[in-house]
Amino acid sequence: MAHRPTIMGTRHMVSACQYLAAEAGFKILEAGGNAIDAGVAAGMSLGVVQPEYVNFAGVAPIIIYSAADNSVFTIPGLGTWPKAIPRDHFKTHHAGKIPQGIQRTVVPAAPDAWITALERFGTMSFGDVAQSAIGFARDGFPVYPLMSEIITEHEAEYRMFPQVTSRDLAQAAHDSVAKLVPAGRVEGCGGRGPGQRKDGRHA
What we know:
Elements: H1 19-30, H2 35-49, E1 62-66, E2 71-75, H3 89-94, H4 110-121, H5 126-129, H6 131-139, E3 141-142, H7 145-153, H8 155-158, H9 166-174, E4 177-178, H10 183-187
Antiparallel strand pairs: 1-2, 3-4
Helix pairs in contact: 1-2, 2-4, 2-6, 7-9
């Protein structure tokens, strides 16, 4: 018999694989935002508080169900290769393999997907829903054991990138509070305040 109470709600609920991301989404609902606003807030927060799995400049495929229309909408949120790259580039220059480093990345798609979701279905600005993610990036967040284990295990790979410092890795491995994603990276994707929903796409 379980001794913990079943989680129930009378107004709304948010589920995420990291509790701080769920908290970010819940705050948006409590502030009057809709499910799309909350989902974007949670998704952005995941890019900060779960960097061993989620990249803020990565991908964010989104599926939205509209009860009003009884319809399902999708936003691909998948990165693309640069248009100028020849199709046979990796075959010609890398024996058909994709090397480590910048050539392994795609054009960041997650911020565009979040902004698109807000433009089409949201009620709040990018700046409003980004506040929790900015706060986690600026003030830090608790490191949990699995995160520390994964980052420590892949330390050599992280060190390949010059922007990752020894201090970053030490925080992730040992500190109780980490600051691993610059707050400016989150702020730079969109406006910092109300009414700046569309500015993010060009930032």
